[in-house]
Amino acid sequence: MFSTDLKLLNEYIKESGYKREYIAKFLGISRASFIYRMRGKIDFSVSEANKLCILLDLNTTDIMNIFFAKKLNVTNLS
After folding, report:
1. 78/75 Cα distance (integer angstroms)
2. pTM of the entire predicted model
3. How many CB atoms are located within 10 Å of the residue 58 CB?
4. Using alpha carbons only, how large is the chain's radius of gyration in Å?
């Protein structure tokens, strides 16, 4: 199971200096929708993730670490 590492993504957003309102507009979504995504309530679409990668100038490793973060299921580690 893969998921978005929102903590890491948030770090890149902070480093970029972009305001959330600007990022939401760049993605073509409302500020509220962006906040839902950043809280993990809604997943980013492929198109939105691609736009974020372009805006934040993410390299391949960054993209893998953020958008393909592996969730560890601790119950299956026996």
Report:
1. 7
2. 0.82
3. 19
4. 13
